[in-house]
Amino acid sequence: MKTFVLFLTFGSAVCTQHIMQPGRELIKEIFSFSSEITDVDGFSSKIVGGSNADITTYPWQVSLQMRSGSGWYHICGGSIIDNNWIVTAAHCVDGSSANTLRIAAGMTKLSDTSRTVRSLARIIMHPNYSSSRPGYPNDIALLELSQSLTFGATMNKIAVPTTQDFTGSTCSLSGWGRLSGSGSSPDNLKDVQMTIISNSECSTRWASVTGAAINDGNICILESGKSACSGDSGGPMTCYSGNTPYLAGATSWGISTCSGDFPSVYARLTSFRSWISSYVSI
């Protein structure tokens, strides 16, 4: 599993760098019927790298899927925070209606037909999300399900942290995102462990890139050769305090090559706890 939203364009003499959001890129490919995107019911994967994970390790992980024609396609990740509510990235649902999306939960493989599927009752994007401002501020959304989830070993909620910073902690990224910038998405859930860096270090490392901006609502993670990638957007950054897992972040943006040369940037859940709690009891 590698990183998500920042894309680099290289000219013959001049290097121009700009950021983009991976969920949007995957949606574009679905609607252009790219040969790299496969219906989840007939999944064909080309695994480039990464470590296989099991859903029992991340039972809060869900796949956000979009309907196109007669098929459903994985576009982003998400996290269960209540049996009726999912957290994801706003850019994953921006411009979409609830009846064109669904979530799938309780499975390690996207192709697993025993997965639990729920349609959406409504989409609630953060009111201050912006797709045009540097750094895509407030890139977070809530999805209300049309029917409750039944919790168990493969499907459960994760706690939203209150004040924890997690800087210096080793945390996990998980999802069904691409294993390289140009590769296909895997069928099996993947995970990788990385270290949280301070926002000041994150900002310094992104300083050379036009359009990149780090704010208090972000949390960053960095380790050479590791990151999230297209299809991981909206998915969980899982950090532990003692034996308790917390949803420290939701995948927002990063570098298109998924190389790990730049930090991966997430929505910091502590910054949005008050907004979330206005809809969900957490």
Describe this structure as you would to a colleague.
Strand 5 and strand 6 (85-88) form a beta hairpin. This protein has helices at residues 22-31, 90-93, 199-206, 269-277, and strands at residues 6-10, 15-19, 51-52, 61-68, 71-82, 85-88, 101-105, 116-125, 141-145, 170-175, 190-197, 218-222, 236-241, 244-253, 264-268. It is 11% helix and 34% strand. Mean pLDDT is 81; it is low at 1-18 and 22-49. The chain is mainly beta and 282 residues long. The chain folds into two domains: 53-157, Trypsin-like serine proteases (Thrombin, subunit H); 169-270, Trypsin-like serine proteases (Thrombin, subunit H), CATH 2.40.10.10. The longest helix is centred in the N-terminal third of the chain and has 10 residues, at 22-31. It is built from four helices and 15 strands.
Q: How helix-rich are the residues, as a percent range?
A: 10-25%
CATH class (first level) name of the largest domain: Mainly Beta
Distance between the termini: 29 Å
CATH third-tier fold name of the largest domain: Thrombin, subunit H
Major sheet characteristics: 6 strands, antiparallel, barrel
The coarse silhouette is globular
Strand order of the largest sheet: 10-11-12-15-14-13
Please give the count of helices: 4
Q: Uncertain regions: pLDDT < 50 for 5+ in a row? A: 1-18, 22-49
Strand segment count: 15
Looking at the overall shape, the CATH architecture of the largest domain is Beta Barrel
User: How large is the radius of gyration?
Assistant: 17 Å
Instruction: Determine the strand fraction and express it as a percent band.
Output: 25-35%
Give the assembly state of these chains.
single chain
Order of helices and strands: EEHEEEEHEEEEEHEEEEH
Q: How many separate domains make up the residues?
A: 2
Average pLDDT taken over every residue? 81
CATH homologous superfamily of the largest domain? Trypsin-like serine proteases
Structural class: mainly beta
